[in-house]
Write a structure and sequence with these properties.
Keywords: Acyltransferase, Cytoplasm, Iron, Metal-binding, Transferase, tRNA processing. By secondary structure, the chain is of the alpha/beta class. It contains twelve helices and ten strands. The relative contact order is 0.18. The structure holds adenosine-5'-triphosphate, magnesium ion and fe (iii) ion.
């Protein structure tokens, strides 16, 4: 099935054409980062307006790159939630309109379901597996039993990992979003020179806490008499990254042990992080499990990632109704409810 996928949950407007939930013919992403950077975070009203402008452009671009016209599209997938409701509505309304006008089926997909299954566009990972979702809004461990079947194993009690990266970058004056910058600086630093706390590391659960690490960085910065730069900045970034990565690695291993599974999928923007990749790859070699990371373009927000679940739902005959609404908050374990269980 040839799907057009649309995503506008936060600050990326994205469109993709994907065949059979597998073959990515195009994956276009228009980022609004420049628009929001000066405010140090995403401004919801601005995001909605920018999505409205960018959506027709990314759709045309996606069709052109795929070398097809809209008449070849057999189904539509959009992000239904979670996210900023005004932003979500842009992809949702566009998808409904296209589906109605062309009389083709459409389906609303969970954004995190997209992140968790994106790896299937590149290599086949057998279900069930453990998914570590590390993004701007999530730091969650899930048991993924199949499309539509997700069980939460653990989650952050406060900030998400990406949020902590962004806050640390902001307080160091490194701009927004700053995860990738901190990652780059950390690569040149000594991770043991400044030691930050590892919250919940030794607690017998699968939960995370990142706000304490961020506060420890803030307190450290406040205590300095001069601005942090050069190798001192590298060491600070490396120390923060080591603390975050150590906790993410330890809890992932604990989740594998608790479920008895030997496959770990890492997804979301922080899955781009080189420190996290190295740490989990080493743990996988030592612990004899497999770890899967999508390529960076499929880790951060994109529309192609929606195709895996959407293709499965549509192929099984499921369709979303035209009065389907966006969901700003939507736990992943309820993602398949519309089709698989009772209606939500
Ligand atoms: P969610 O998916 O939870 O709704 P989101 O869509 O905003 O949130 P993503 O686009 O998946 O999140 O990821 C963006 C986050 O990833 C940002 O916080 C960004 O700083 C972080 N990030 C991107 N690259 C890196 C990196 N190399 N190291 C650490 N963090 C990174
Ligand atoms: Mg984003
Ligand atoms: Fe995301």
């Amino acid at each position: 099935m040839l799907l057009l996928c649309l995503e506008s949950s936060c600050d990326e407007t994205a469109a993709a054409v994907v065949r059979d939930g597998r073959e990515v013919l195009s994956n276009i992403i228009a980022s609004q980062v420049d628009v929001h950077a000066r405010y140090g975070g995403v401004v919801p009203e601005l995001a909605s307006r920018k999505h409205l402008e960018a959506m027709p452009v990314v759709i045309e671009d996606a069709l052109e790159r795929a070398g097809i016209g809209i008449e070849a599209i057999e189904g539509i997938a959009v992000t239904r939630g979670p996210g900023l409701v005004g932003a979500l509505l842009v992809a949702l309304a566009t998808g409904k309109a296209l589906a109605f006008a062309r009389d083709i089926p459409w389906v609303g997909v969970h954004h995190i379901e997209g992140h968790a299954l994106a790896i299937q566009l590149e290599q086949e990972v057998t279900y069930p597996f453990v998914a570590l979702i590390v993004s701007g809004g999530h730091t969650h461990l899930y048991l993924v039993e199949g499309v539509g079947h997700y069980r939460i194993l653990g989650r952050t009690l406060d900030d998400a990992a990406g949020e902590a990266y962004d806050k640390v970058a902001k307080l160091l004056g490194l701009g927004y979003p700053g995860g990738a910058v901190v990652d780059r600086l950390a690569a040149e630093g000594d991770p043991e020179s400044i030691v930050f706390p590892r919250p919940l590391l030794h607690q017998d659960n699968l939960d995370f806490s990142f706000s304490g690490i961020k506060t420890a960085v803030l307190n450290y910065v406040k205590k300095q008499s001069s601005e942090i730069s050069g190798s001192h900045l590298n060491d600070l970034a490396a120390g923060f990254q080591r603390a975050a990565v150590e906790v993410l690695t330890a809890k992932s291993l604990r989740a594998l042990k608790a479920t008895g599974l030997r496959r770990l999928v890492v997804a979301g923007g922080v899955a781009c992080n080189r420190g996290l990749r190295q740490s989990l790859q080493q743990a996988a070699r030592e612990g004899e499990f497999e770890v899967f990371f999508p390529t960076p373009l499929l880790c951060t927000d994109n529309a192609a990632m929606l195709a895996v679940a959407a293709d499965a739902y549509l192929s099984q005959g499921h369709r979303s109704a035209l009065d389907l609404n966006a969901l700003a908050g939507w736990p992943l374990d309820r993602a398949g409810d519309e089709f698989l269980f009772s209606s939500i």
